[in-house]
Amino acid sequence: MDVHNPHDRFFRSWFSRKENLAGFLEAALPAEVFSLLDISGLAVQDGTFIDEEHREHFSDLSATVQIAGTSTRVYILVEHKSWADKWALLQILRYMVQTWTRDAKESPSQPLTPILPILFYHGESSSVHSRFSELFSPGYPEALRDYQPEYLCQVFNLTALPDSRLGGPPEMEAALWAMKYARTQIDLALKAFDRLSRTVGNIFKDDPSFMEIELYLLSSSGLTPEELLDKVNRLLTDSYLKEGFMSTAEMLIARGEARGEARGEARGEARGEARGEARGKEEEKRAIARKLREQGLTVQQISTATGLPEQEVRDLPLT
Predict the structure, then answer these.
(1) Taking the model in full, what pTM does it have?
(2) How far is CA 294 from the centre of its chain?
């Protein structure tokens, strides 16, 4: 997993919160499966695995939950893909095997715990596999199929999901609009936010969770500073929402993350100037982090938004 990928960073930060993960599971799982789960006991876990060669692998999200009315638990494993990875189900299978291998070593007398694998997908192609058997050639004889591993992965295909089904609590709906259209049609996401704001009132005003969505949407858009500000100014009619987006866009411009600004800067510059510029950008990130702390965002949210390590965010002196 590329931890520097803004889509991965936002996904892990947003859905690792119990209330957001619970809402996602309700949207992603079939009703008959979701109804089996005692969501009140949902617990997010560390998704780090170490293989026999001592190399670390990271699933995007792991959790445990009990089956309602019983003491039996199941694992939930969610893998996030913002691009069409042909081998995503193979990667998920590896995490499943590593989970079961760990449990077999720790509790050799106990049976294995079932795993609910989920793939959260929002890449450009709308086609994605949901069964492991689909990775094999269909030309093999039927008699050989039972010798191959098989499992069903619940795919939450945001790319193919109709806009009419982007629902749920306002914050969840806003997050899904952002993840679906940040790279392709930011206009649709901004219009959806404007409609949400008019429908539910000023619920997004000074909301740290929504500010995190703003940061993700604008920093992932690939637009120049001028394009960002123009779209925010034209497409948003709610004054509170527009003010928040304008402030966020200006922070990103100061941070130097807009593509057009980043393109011509380092060419032909002396090494000393480049070092000084890098130091200046780090200072800008810290200044933004301090401002976000003053506005109530958590250390994890600020780290996600700025790229600064969480410990560095904690150590920043406030003005």
Answers:
(1) 0.78
(2) 24
